[in-house]
Amino acid sequence: MSKMKKVLYFYVLLSIVWVFGTDHLIALLDYDIYTFIAISKIKAVLFIAATFIFIKYLISKNEQFQELEREKEKLLSLINSMVDFVNFKDGEGRWIEVNTFGLNLFDLQGVDYKGKRDRDLAEYTEFYREALLYCEESDEQTWMSGSVSRSEEQIPQPDGSFKTFDTIKVPLFNDDGSRKALVVIGRDITQMKEAEDRLQKAEKLSVVGGLAASVAHEIRNPLTSLKGFVQLMNKNDSVNKLYYEIMENELDRINEIVGELLVLAKPQNIRFTKTNVSKLMCNVISLLESQANMYGVNIVFQSDAGMKEIDCEPNQLKQVFINIIKNSIEAGSKSISISLFEEGGSARIMIEDDGEGMEEERLKRLGEPFYSVKEKGTGLGLTVSYRIIQSHGGTITYSSKVGEGTKVVIDLPVKRT
Ligand SMILES: Nc1ncnc2c1ncn2[C@@H]1O[C@H](COP(=O)(O)OP(=O)(O)OP(=O)(O)O)[C@@H](O)[C@H]1O
Ligand SMILES: [Mg+2]
């Protein structure tokens, strides 16, 4: 029963006791009629005065209550309009208030969350279960530290990606040192982190680019004479033919790597021409067909009929496609599906495989020069590809799940600006 209702019942009860009790008392005292009338009048006046005080008290309480409600409304609309995650918890970790952003973040819309802990709410959402349980753990760490904590927390998304939150937790304590409340505020910094990563990659690329130019140049010349002499010796010496062949093959490989390094070098002489990317992709697929067959990989390609020609350097784009598809083949895929279509004024090339996939750590390092987990990989394939797409004014995005496969989305502007 609410406090207001209790007060009201108490008033009614007291009034009944007053009216009948005092009447009974007066009757017992056996006053004459005049005294009886006078006492009754005084009784009525006292009753009116008491009722007046009582109603005034109720009105002022009601006003206070309404004021509180208005303040609460204001606070709620303030935290709900925030694009940050805001959550107030009590000292026991029970949710007191959370904004709409927070409810949407954990897919808890419509759940009566008040008074529940993270672990109770984890029962409502299978997908965010782990994330909620982790929040409880990290809350505990904040309580133990006894001061404001700040950390980056990752929340998984249904599409397989992660959102990164810059999370601040403020623990509040009672005077006796017991836990009072915890304020949690989280800001979505996913885009900022991605931009930072891109910038870091671009910086590394430009450093490697500068280095590559000089190194590649220095290696090319002695390489040419080495190859010439090996070929010559191969012709004149029939005993060591096998060794010469191995040497020639290895020299070719060095030459290939140097060639890739040269692509990274700046400045580059790129000649853009209008190219039919669909035809270009068909070429690449037929080029890789024998390797794909060897690994038992099926490549499916589909392209929008009305695809416009795009401004690009066809040989460089070819190299990008080869690098990406080769990676998919090497990742143990059974099927690679490639699609080409227009999306918001750009040409979108999507390459999806069902290979081994990559964990988050590997995904972050893609495009880093010399990063490879393959025994014979140089780790330049994607560095070169990123550089080429960058010089075309496009973007390349990887998403992947271990054991499920990898998806690469390349967006290229149709026209050069
Ligand atoms: N489709 C994919 N599936 C799984 N892992 C991939 C995929 N594409 C790239 N990778 C990972 O990214 C790493 C870097 O790729 P990158 O093409 O740059 O180098 P590499 O293939 O190792 O060597 P190379 O320079 O010979 O291409 C690879 O070693 C591989 O672990
Ligand atoms: Mg590769």
From TrEMBL:
Task: Return the Gene3D superfamilies for the record.
Answer: 1.10.287.130, Histidine kinase-like ATPase, C-terminal domain (3.30.565.10), PAS domain (3.30.450.20)
- For whether the record's keyword set contains Transferase, the answer is yes
Query: What GO molecular function terms would the record report?
Result: ATP binding; phosphorelay sensor kinase activity
Q: Which residues form the PAC domain?
A: 149-201
Taxonomically, which superkingdom?
Bacteria
- Which Pfam families does the record cross-reference, listed alphabetically? HATPase_c (PF02518), HisKA (PF00512), PAS_4 (PF08448)
Under SMART domains, the record lists: HATPase_c (SM00387), HisKA (SM00388)
Kindly state which keywords UniProt assigns to this record, in alphabetical order.
Answer: ATP-binding, Kinase, Membrane, Nucleotide-binding, Phosphoprotein, Sporulation, Transferase, Transmembrane, Transmembrane helix, Two-component regulatory system
Q: Please, one GO biological process term?
A: sporulation resulting in formation of a cellular spore
Q: Which residues cross the membrane?
A: 7-27, 33-55
Q: Is-annotated flag, keyword Transmembrane?
A: yes
Q: What is its EC number?
A: 2.7.13.3
According to UniProt, the reaction catalysed is:
ATP + protein L-histidine = ADP + protein N-phospho-L-histidine
List, alphabetically, the InterPro entries matched: HATPase_C_sf, HATPase_dom, His_kinase_dom, HisK_dim/P_dom, HisK_dim/P_sf, PAS, PAS-assoc_C, PAS-like_dom_sf
Residue intervals of the Histidine kinase domain? 214-416
- Report the NCBIfam families cross-referenced here: sensory_box
* Protein's name according to its UniProt entry: histidine kinase
Q: Which organism is it from?
A: Metabacillus indicus
Q: State the taxonomy lineage.
A: Bacteria, Bacillati, Bacillota, Bacilli, Bacillales
